[in-house]
Each structure stands twice: as structure tokens, then as C-alpha cells.
Amino acid sequence: MGKRNAIFVSIASFCDSNLLFTLESLFDTASGDLDINVGVFDQSFESINGSIERFQWGDRVRYLHIHPMHSKGVCWARSVIGSLFDGEDFYFQIDSHTMFKKDWDKFLFEQMEKLGKLSCKPIISTYPPPFEFDEEGNPFEKLVPSSYLYALRPKEEGFSSSDSYELKFKVFHEKGGDYITGFHLAGGFIFTLGSFVDEVPYDPWFYFHGEEQGLALRAYTKGWDIFHPRHDHIPLLHLYKQSGVKHDAHHWRSDLEQVRRVKWVERKKVSEERLTDLIEREGVNGRLGLGTERSLDQFIDFSGIDYRVKKINHPETRLVNV
To answer: Under CATH, domain 6-241+251-320 is a member of which superfamily?
Structure first.
């Protein structure tokens, strides 16, 4: 492998009791072939920095803490984490409730080397398959890994309203190939080159819905290529919210909303306006705006998402073998 390449892992955590589990899983399953540095922005009532420092890998974690009352949401948090990036070769964005498979770092590095022959700016991204905890608190993988591709497509209901550009996405299973070229990014799994942090920095004015759309639009128009992998080529698992579980690990949790000066609905409105301005090229310029390597019309043709008339067409399937 030559010199030891370095990975910067971005973790934005909000009142998440699984943050330490995620960190332990990340370091315990790493191959040791690459240097791993983690940027954590922990928005919680109590700091866990003391617990982190007791681990052998504690000095690999760049930890920030803030009371959740003062948080402005996940995109703001991820933009702050960008300031902890220190020139690592690769950027890996995950959620704070993630479990890893053995040698995840080596596998993703090798996949990026292969994709680098197809694109000078490759991104591996999709919604990871799920894991849960059993009654004894032991994590387990819910699905048997398959050869199906985890392609991201808009949900059937389309645009949320006539005056909004927001879409919701889900995984569609495609058969054949190692990857399928994509047009959407999953905030809980982005693995790419470190230069992504400078070229496509997080926009702190986004809130939650629309985050992934805006990021994907900006990445695509700046020349980045998205690749969705096969299920059995995804070396991480995600703990999804279960029905009946309170939103305690979500920014809009009711106890904090009751005393916040700026409510989550206000931040959501600003976020919706931000996505509108981005698409209409009116109010977002510079590094937080669209790129010049590809146009919005090219994105529309490539993705089938026609933002101009708010219509969704079926895109051409583009399978890739590496």
C-alpha cells in the first residue's frame, strides 16, 4: 500500500447514546493499514471526552462538545466538523449510530483505487443496511448481504409540495454490476477523496430535509461522480429509528424546542429557501453554490429529476464493474 494513507471520519452526534459504541466499532474493526482520525461534534447534555481519552485510540479523536440547546442542526454541525479536517487523503462521513465490519477501511480504500480508474472524483455513497440491538444489548445485522445494488431513487410521491423542491429518497434494488452510477448522496455514508471537504463544503444553512439533495447537486456540478455499491460491498450498518421510539436523538425533540428561541420550523423554512435559491441560481454563490464543470440541465438529463417542471422521469441504468 506504500505510505500509510489517512482517513478523516466526520461524525455529527446529537444526544446519541450510541456515539461511543460507534467509535469503538470503528476503531476495533479497522485493519490498521491506514491512519484514521475522527472529527466528532457532540451536541449533548454531558461531554464524553473523558471516556474517549481512556481508549488507546483516544488521541485520534478531535472532539468538540456543545449543549444541545445551542445546536443549529445537523448540517451546521457537519460544517463545523469540516474545520477539524487536516488534509487527510480521504473523507468519510457517517452517523453516530453506525456499526462497522472487519477491515472496513482497507476495503473502502481498495474500492476507491479501482473507481479512480473510472473517475478522478469518485464518491461511494448509499443508505447503509440496518442493524439493531437484541434484548441483551448485542448488535446484529438484520439482513443477509446480497448482490443487489443499493441504488438511491426518489420515492414515488415525488416533490413534497408544489412550492418546494424537496424530495424523499429510498433504496431501490438493482441487479448486475459492482456499482451503479448515482445522482444522490446519503448523509450517513459518504466515502471520497479528502479534497471533497474544500470543494463541496457543508452549507450550514441547510437543516435536515434537502440536505442530501443540495449536496448531491453541488457535487455533481463540480465534477464529482457518485457510485452506489452492492449490498455485500457495504462495510457499515446503520441503526434506523424504530416505530414507537421517541425523537430524543433528533434536533427537533420537544423538550428543547419548548425553550429554544429559534424553532426548528423556522430553520426548516430557511433550509427550503436555500434549496430553492440553489436550484434557481439566485441566492447561493461561491463554494456553497453550484459548480461550473456541469450544468443543472446536465444533472436533470442524467438523473431524470426535472427541477424546472417538477417532474421525475426514470433515468437510464448505468452499471459499473471494477
So the answer is: Spore Coat Polysaccharide Biosynthesis Protein SpsA; Chain A (3.90.550.10)
